[in-house]
Amino acid sequence: MPIPLLDLKRQYEPLRHDMEKALGEVAASQYFILGPQVEQFEKEAAGWLKVDHAVGVASGTDALLVALMALGIGPGDEVILPSFTFFATAGTVARLGATPVFVDIDPVDFNIDPEAVRARMTEKTRAIIPVHLFGQSVDLAAVFQAAGEVPVLEDCAQAWGADFDGKYVGGHGIMGAFSFFPSKNLGGFGDGGLVTTNDAEIAAALRELRVHGQSGPYLHPRVGGNFRLDAIQAAVLRVKLPHVQGWIQGRRANAMRYVDHFTRKGLEAVLGVPLALSRRGHTFNQFVIRAPRRDELRQHLIDRGIGCAVYYPLPLHLQPCFSDLGYSEGDCPVAEQASREVLALPVFPELTEPEIEEVVGAIAEFYEA
Ligand SMILES: *Cc1c(COP(=O)(O)O)cnc(C)c1O
Fold this sequence. Notes:
- The chain has 2 domains: 8-103 and 111-242, Type I PLP-dependent aspartate aminotransferase-like (Major domain) (Aspartate Aminotransferase, domain 2); 244-368, Aspartate Aminotransferase, domain 1.
- Helices cover 39% and strands 12% of the residues.
- The protein has helices at residues 8-12, 16-29, 36-49, 60-70, 88-95, 114-120, 140-147, 200-209, 231-240, 244-264, 294-303, 333-341, 353-368; strands at 53-57, 78-82, 99-103, 125-128, 153-155, 163-164, 167-168, 175-179, 193-197, 287-290, 342-345.
- α2 runs antiparallel to α9 (231-240), α3 (36-49) packs parallel to α9 and α6 (114-120) packs parallel to α7 (140-147).
- The longest helix is centred in the last third of the chain and has 21 residues, at 244-264.
- The protein starts with 7 loop residues before the first helix and ends with a helix.
- Residues 59-61, 85-86, 88-89, 131, 155, 157-158, 179, 181, 191, 193 line the site of pyridoxal-5'-phosphate (PLP).
C-alpha cells in the first residue's frame, strides 16, 4: 500500500457527520462572507490561542500582507526574515514595495538565526518576521533581544499550537499570521487565514484593512483590500478546532516513533533528525530530516510508494524574482545547505505504526545498499 505524505481523508472520515451538518447550516443561511460563523470562529480561535483578538482573513498570505499593511510597511522600509521559508513570507513584503532582508537560519532547528538578525538591523528596519518553520517555535526571546523596539510579526502558518515558554506562538509578537491551507495543523476546505494580536487598535485596523480599508459605509481612511474569510471556511474550522490539540499530539507521537525506529536501526548516525528543544514546543507540521544523497533517497522512497517532499529546494535569497537585491550563493550558507539536505516524511496524525516502520525500513534499505 502506498503511504502518502498527507492523507486528509483519514481526518475527514470521523468528522463527516458534524461537517455535513455545519456545511448544511451555512447553505441554509445563505450568509457566505464574514458574518456570524466568522465572528464565532474568531472568538473560539482567540480563546484557543489565548490572545485578545483574532481576525479571519482569506489566506495565510493575506494574513501576512494585511499585518504588514497594519504596520504601515511600504517603499523604503526593510523587513528582516529568514531565507529558508515559504515564499509568502518574503513575497508579501515585496508586494508592498518594501525590501525583504534575507538572513540565515540556525542549523539545528532551521529557524531564523537571531545573531544574523542583529547583524542586519539598520535604521530602515521596520519589522522582523520570524517563521516558526515546520511547526517548531523560534527562540523568540533571542529574536526580541535582537529586535529591540522594532515590531516582530510571527509567521505562524505552520505552527498552530506550538508554544514558546509555555505560551502559544502568535501571542508573543505584535501580531501572528496563521494559515488554514489544508495541509497546516488546522486546515480548512480551501484557503483561509487569521491574524492574532493583543493590541485593540491594531485589531481594529486589521478589520478595516480586510474590507478595502473601509471604516464606515463607503468611507476609506486608507487603502485596504478584499482579505475576508468565508463563512464556509469558518464553519469547517469550528468543527475541527476541538480536535486540533489531539492531532498535534498525534504528530508528536509519530515523530517520537520515527526517532525510536531510526535509533534502533542505527540511522541517527546517518541522518539529521528533528529535535523537540527545551522551551520550544514542536508541533511537527512537517517531520523534516537531513539526508545524505537526498535526491537519490527521495527517488528511492517515491519508487516504493512513500510520499515525501523537499521544503524548500531553493532559498529565497537566490530566487530569480529577488535577483535585483544582489544576493549570491554563499550569503546564507546554512539555508543553502538545508535546501540540499532536507526531506519531509509523512507524519500526519492518522499515520500508523506499521506505516512508520515501513518508511524507516525503506530508508534503512537505501543506506545499507
Ligand atoms: C503556508 C504558509 C504561508 C502562506 O499561507 P497560505 O494560506 O498558503 O497563503 C506563509 N508562510 C508559511 C511559512 C507557510 O508555510
